[in-house]
């Protein structure tokens, strides 16, 4: 079972019974939950509460959910936004995604589905908040700083752990050597970048990836992990 302690969720909806239902369910799962009834109070709560996830209804009096979403994305707020839309309002879903919403759900919805979507956003945007992340054949335990592959712990150095975690959690995305250097080594690298190649080679050895099917090299672009 996932541990959601310390993960902050802001619920924004002008229907009290929906807020009460979601707040009770999420608190029972271990989340820290705050509620807001309209767009302006939601924006104020974001700045003071700094949630990781916001469940945001589109249709609200005054400042609506689409406006809230756009303003937060313009501010580059580090928040996963899940929009709630009426069942038949396809235009609202499209508008929400175009202005930066990370996901949407149509009312009515099941609590189990909402929980699954929250978990998906956390794994994608805040993987370090979850103690254990399962992605394909990988299990990342951020508390122990360990990664298992097909059930076997890999025995990684701290830098190998950070690099493989980056590649796996960003699976499907090509990461250039420059990006990797900036993220893992925390500086702009102006010289030889073969240090990345050295660590990639070491990771491939520990994964038994002789044919480079797990960590793929895209010539001139960088590296990418593809998960089944």
TrEMBL record:
One of its GO terms (molecular function) is transcription cis-regulatory region binding. It holds the Pfam family Response_reg. One of its GO terms (cellular component) is cytosol. Keywords: DNA-binding, Phosphoprotein, Transcription, Transcription regulation, Two-component regulatory system. The modification 4-aspartylphosphate is found at residue 57. Residues 130-227 form the OmpR/PhoB-type domain. GO terms for biological process: regulation of DNA-templated transcription. CDD domains: REC_OmpR, trans_reg_C. The keyword NAD does not apply. Residues 130-227 bind DNA. The keyword Glycosyltransferase does not apply. SMART domains: REC, Trans_reg_C. Residues 8-122 form the Response regulatory domain. InterPro entries: CheY-like_superfamily (IPR011006), OmpR/PhoB-type_DNA-bd (IPR001867), Sig_transdc_resp-reg_C-effctor (IPR016032), Sig_transdc_resp-reg_receiver (IPR001789), WalR-like (IPR039420), WH-like_DNA-bd_sf (IPR036388). This is Two component transcriptional regulator, winged helix family. It comes from Paenibacillus lactis 154.
